[in-house]
Amino acid sequence: MLLCVGGGIAAYKALELVRRLRDAGARVQVAMTEGAQQFVTPLSFQALSGLPVRTSLWDSAAEQSMGHIELARWADHIVIAPATADLIARLAGGHADDLVSTLCLASAAPLTVCPAMNHHMWLHPATQANIDLLRQRGAQVVGPEDGPLAEGESGPGRLAQVPQIVAALAHPDSAVPSVPSSDSRLRGVRLVISAGPTYEDLDPVRYIGNRSSGKMGFALAQAAAARGAQVVLVAGPVQLPTPAGVERINVRSAAQMRQAVMDALPADIYIGAAAVSDYTPKVVCPQKMKKTAQTTGMSLELVRTPDILAEVAQQTGALKLVVGFAAETHDVATYARGKLVNKRLDLIIANRVGVAGGGFESDDNAATAYWADGEREFASMSKAQLAGQLLDLISQRLDA
């Protein structure tokens, strides 16, 4: 395995990648760009790989017998981690102006690219065009992931987790696709996504709400925007940053969410990922409700809120796909398929809540997608990764 390390802060994670690859039985040779050496020393990689590290095309000792050609032919597989925006651009352009780019150009070995950069750089049309070109030439792309970045911002640009990279190398067909994917049909498509809870006020102090964090809906919005979709995100009261390239509309109540969603139509796809309150107080007290010494209990009269998902599904015109979410505590398949039919949805994503490691407030989730004549399970993974896989399925269902 020839590991080419690019010049980004994520270069330190490549040390762990060397160790994991060797644990998996691979023999690893490392080549570093000049920029990579500003973050990690060649000696560190040599200590972990057990082999000399190549750093320059102008190493007279190594090049006495055309060492770069020899190394290019030695590799059974080339992995670039981290792959910076500049390195991706040079690979796409067929440059051979340093050791790493020359090795890639001179080798017929399969290529895996693991991008890592600022999210604005990743989402830039030039980077997307370059990564698409590498895919068209047969390169496997693993990552990037969505999350906090070194500069304090957040978005798609984090190097994929080392175990994910190792798994992708061992089983290429099972790799989690990066965002955006080259065969995505979402470019230019208008999506309206609702996310988070709604709060139904009792008085100026208290409200009825739920535990939805909005993380799944925000991850879908981020991933869809990265694939070139035009995304409107109707967000309940959550403390999450607005994904890059997404139009955000903040709401509080179910009635406000319904109005914002309807105003955002027409759209090609609606994804109802919000946990909308089913009931709201019939009367909102204008002042704080006070307890007294005689107060031993309280009764509230509640009324049904509008069923936003069902109402959207009845719309005609541009809508091509209506996707719902079902958070259930038991009998998940039964309730999910019931909602699919009763609300006349095209697709519903169901997950079990109230369990450790998934559902509300968690960064991870497992889910099952149901449609009229099929279903697909998604194992537990980060919500950012799940968003990418769900969008792949949604893209496929557009033509179903």
Written description of the protein model:
By secondary structure, the chain is of the alpha/beta class. It folds into two domains: 2-174, Rossmann fold (3-Layer(aba) Sandwich), CATH 3.40.50.1950; 190-284 and 297-397, CoaB-like (Rossmann fold). The protein is 31% helix and 23% strand. It has 13 helices and 19 strands. It has helices at residues 13-23, 42-49, 67-74, 85-92, 99-106, 119-123, 125-136, 162-170, 215-226, 254-264, 308-313, 332-342, 383-397, and strands spanning 2-5, 29-32, 78-83, 111-115, 140-141, 145-148, 154-158, 190-195, 200-201, 207-208, 230-235, 246-250, 269-272, 279-281, 302-304, 321-328, 347-352, 364-371, 374-382. The chain has an eight-stranded mixed sheet, with helices on both faces. The protein has a five-stranded parallel sheet with strand order 2-1-3-4-5, sandwiched between helices. It has a two-stranded antiparallel sheet with strand order 6-7. Helix 1 (13-23) packs across helix 8, helix 3 crosses helix 5 (99-106) and helix 4 (85-92) crosses helix 7. The longest helix is centred in the last third of the chain and has 15 residues, at 383-397. The model is unreliable at 173-183 (pLDDT under 50).
Features:
400 residues, alpha/beta, Rossmann fold, 2 domains, 8-stranded mixed β-sheet, 5-stranded parallel β-sheet, 13 helices, 19 strands, 31% helix, elongated, Flavin_trans-like
